[in-house]
């Protein structure tokens, strides 16, 4: 029993530390476009969490010359834990937040992420939601209902997933389609693929389809997202 209480205390301290760090991070200045970066932090995800932590800076780099980007980290893990940071305007701040999170066993909470994005967009525009994961353990019709609401709000979901489960791939594809976004698979052994997808999503969030069209001349990931969003 003592060991269990010690574990609970340690986990609670980690959550408190995450929230305190999130409060200290300076919010973005001006009216930078907002993007929500949501990750599955259940136990199987640690290698990909580490990968995402290493490549997420590309989102900021891709938009630095375009006026910047404000990114909010959202993650879910464990027993019904789903948390969101403040919107931050630099890669170092987001890396610091991510480094304070460890993956824990639990079921997916994609529905909570989608509803959170809907609520955020109701308060102030959100240009895109990026969702990185490898599983869907919820009722897909419920998720699709919220994805459709995001589509009506003009908030596309970019579902970047790993693995070869056809049911999972189909579920992410439907969430993306109904929201007006794109679903794409990446291999965790090829970090440049996820990095490129995140950059392309950031360019869309900052400059929309016109920005993607310009980037698509030289960037395969931008072409992939553009084709998925325009049917081209």
Automatic annotation (TrEMBL):
InterPro entries: vWFA_dom_sf
Stated name of the protein: VWA domain-containing protein
Organism: Methylobacterium frigidaeris
């Amino acid at each position: 029993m003592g060991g269990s209480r010690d574990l609970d205390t340690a986990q609670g301290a980690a959550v408190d530390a995450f929230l305190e760090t999130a409060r200290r991070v300076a919010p973005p200045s001006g009216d930078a476009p907002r993007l929500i970066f949501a990750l599955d932090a259940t136990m199987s995800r640690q290698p990909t969490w580490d990968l995402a932590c290493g490549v997420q800076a590309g989102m900021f780099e891709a938009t630095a010359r375009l006026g910047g980007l404000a990114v909010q980290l959202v993650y879910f893990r464990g027993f019904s834990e789903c948390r969101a940071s403040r919107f931050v305007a630099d890669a170092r701040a987001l890396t610091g937040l991510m480094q304070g999170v460890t993956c824990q066993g639990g079921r997916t909470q994609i529905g909570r992420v989608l509803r959170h994005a809907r609520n955020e967009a109701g308060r102030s525009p959100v240009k895109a939601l990026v969702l990185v994961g490898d599983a869907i353990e919820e009722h897909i019709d419920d998720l699709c209902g919220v994805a459709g609401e995001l589509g009506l709000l003009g908030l596309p979901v970019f579902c970047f997933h790993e693995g070869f489960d056809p049911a999972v791939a189909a579920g992410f594809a439907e969430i993306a389609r109904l929201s007006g976004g794109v679903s794409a698979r990446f291999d965790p052994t090829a970090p440049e693929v996820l990095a490129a997808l995140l950059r392309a999503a950031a360019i869309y969030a900052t400059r929309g389809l016109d920005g993607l069209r310009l980037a698509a001349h030289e960037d395969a990931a931008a072409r992939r997202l553009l084709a998925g969003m325009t049917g081209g």
